[in-house]
Amino acid sequence: MNAGETAASTISIELFESLQKAFNDFQLRAEQLSSAYAGMQEDFRKINLELDRKNTELEQSLARQEEMRAYLNSILESMDNGVVGIDDLGNVTNFNRAASEITGFDQSEVIDRPYIDFFRGGTDGEPALYQVLHTGRGLKRDEKVIWHKDGHPVPVSFQTALLKDKSGRRLGAVEIFSDISRIKALEKEMQQAKTMAALGEMSATVAHEIRNPLGAMGMWAGLLERDLSGDDPRKKTLGKIIEGLSKLNKIVSNLLVYTRPIKAEFRKVELGMILEEIVDFVQIEIERLGQNIDLKKNWEKEPVFVLADPEKIGQVVMNLCLNAVQAMPDGGSLSVQMERGERKNAGFVCFSISDTGIGIDKDKIIKIFDPFFTTKENGTGLGLAIVKRFVESHSGFIDVKSSPGRGTTVKVFLPLLKE
């Protein structure tokens, strides 16, 4: 082998060794890359598993939040108290079923609309919810009037509070309120009852003091009338005095009846028999007065029993019938009927007295049972007040419908006797 061949052989060996080394380096790096890729795949798999777990937790959290929202909405909708929520700008965000029933506004009308557009403020002109937003202080308990959609006032008891998130950021305000119309009506009735009790005590004393001199005056007037001859002009004047004394005595007697506690003797009675007896008496009275009134009786022969004091119920029928007769000075038709109550008045028997007389103005119907209110020139204003007391003492109620010039119908409902 010559020198040239030796040099070429040496170069080939060195090139082979370089290639071998490069290949080994490449193989090493490939193995490292493969290992890194495998590590990345493992990390990616772990990340996917973590994402799946997080997604599952998120879905579960959202489901729990949705369940909680539905649960809270169910609570709000089932409440008898109205709940109104507003955001920081004063727009309505919550308006439950009770709020809709109390105010008359539908939920779709008020949501996302300014609260002030639907509910006015108090004397200062600013609603309580707006005051909470401005001052940051809620009201524990107070009373006010909310104006219903149709325009009538509704007294409510309410309280307000400021709404904040966990960080303390203000979100809005909420108001919870309840209709206290019935409570106010009961308070008025209680006040009236106290007034009537005081009036009763006073009336008993005054009536006693008045009736004694009235009796003496009547006796002396009677003696004077007896001593006067029939053609004496003073006898006519004396007759008016006696008539006035009689009327005054009647007023005192009615006042005592109205103000004293009712002592009724309840027993099983057939209502038709009471009606028959009183209506027959009214017929005689109509004939005595010579009035052109057609009296009609309309009820079934089947007996209807109630637990009542027949004397008190008889007086109720008598007063209502005589009022009807007086409402028809030029004649007319008087109808007395009896029937069982239907639907909402099931369990009651109803008897009604209807006339074709002068009728009652709409603004006076609500006052006719008030003591001392009368539309008659010589009325005392106690007859219908006594009627109402007697009916209520029997756990009954009265309904009146009337039109001026077309007559009046008074319906009295009494509980049927349960065997």
Quick synopsis:
This protein is an alpha+beta fold.
3D structure, described in words:
The structure is a single chain. The chain is an alpha+beta fold and 419 residues long. The protein has three domains: 79-179, Beta-Lactamase (2-Layer Sandwich), CATH 3.30.450; 184-259, Helix Hairpins (Orthogonal Bundle); 267-415, Heat Shock Protein 90 (2-Layer Sandwich), CATH 3.30.565. 52% of the residues lie in helices and 20% in strands. The protein has a five-stranded antiparallel beta sheet, sandwiched between helices. A five-stranded mixed beta sheet has the order 7-9-10-12-11, covered by helices on one side. Strand 3 and strand 4 (153-164) form a beta hairpin. The protein starts with a helix and ends with a strand.
Low-confidence stretches: none
Mean pLDDT, rounded to whole units?
A: 82
Report the C-alpha radius of gyration, rounded.
45 Å
CATH superfamily of the largest domain: Histidine kinase-like ATPase, C-terminal domain
Q: What summary fits the major beta sheet?
A: 5 strands, antiparallel
In total, the number of strands is 12
Number of contiguous helices: 10
CATH class division of the largest domain: Alpha Beta
What is CATH's topology name of the largest domain? Answer: Heat Shock Protein 90
How many discrete domains? 3
Question: H/E element string?
Answer: HEEHHHEEEHHEHEEHEEHHEE
CATH architecture classification of the largest domain:
2-Layer Sandwich
**Portion in beta strands:** 15-25%
Instruction: List the strand order in the largest sheet.
Output: 2-1-5-4-3
Helix/sheet category = alpha+beta
